[in-house]
Amino acid sequence: MVPKALVLFSGGLDSLLAMKLLQEQGQEVEAVHIALPFTRAGKPGGLEEIKATAAQLGVVPHIITPDEELAEIVAHPRFGHGRNFNPCQDCRIYQLRKAAALMKEIGADYLATGEVVGQRPMSQRRDALFITDREAGVKGLVLRPLSAKHLPPTIPEEKGWVDRERLLDIAGRGRSIQAALARQWGLSYPSPAGGCLLTYRESAERCRNLLALLGRLRLADLPLIGLGRHFRLGTNALAVVGRKESENRMLAHLFHEHPEGRFLLRTEGVPGPLTLVVGSPTEDDLELAASITARYADLASPGPAAVKVFSPAGEGPAKRVIHAHPATEEELARWRIG
Question: In the chain, what are the domains?
């Protein structure tokens, strides 16, 4: 019997190399990607890029869409937030639990990840890895091929499924060894820049504001932290204004997929952004959102713009028009968040 590994695949270099190392040992490898909305998967074209990276090794990753538990983890992580709003350890436990359930479903023998000891200060310390495996209920079942020699032998090593001597001893934040391996095997990979939005100050501030305005976070709210310009409208509402066509498409998608408590605005007859309003806006809040939307439209004259407001079913008219004067730069600065 050829052992089967299920690799948690982020779409980056380290998880790609973990798969390749196991394939080099004759392992049957499948991959799973947890499509977190605040990572590469949440960007336009992100999932396609992740699948293309895995395809170099002949692997088609399973894609798992998170559930509402993830939003609760982001808002109130058991192991706390990092420097910004990143719940790294709780998030990793969540991902391992999801992967473990799939492992049983597809008949895989063990899990593997591209984690490197010491690469990330919150979730990839040696002690943090042990805690994560224990809390996820997969103690001994998670092989980390890039750092295996810095860690105790796992079940797949002890059973002889994997040759520990052919695994690696990478540690720390450098990527030179990984880059050399990629060149050796002719593998291409996306730039490591970006990563989790929750580790960045601006995104963290946006997430805190969403939580404060809405009282809780929903899964459908999390993609907003990486989109557009954010403006506080009042005590219970937020406007997110698209900066480019791909963001406009995403805002429209989020409105149509999750319309409850949301309004979509766009200028009528002239090019301009889409604006998504979330929360519990008053009529004054919607007029303010229309004014902000008009400010970023390509208006031919300084007069008021016709801004169409689309409402979810059951929340006023399906669509109506607000004639709004564009907001001034001073007003934008006063309302803008992050």
Answer: 4-185 (3.40.50.620), 227-337 (no CATH)
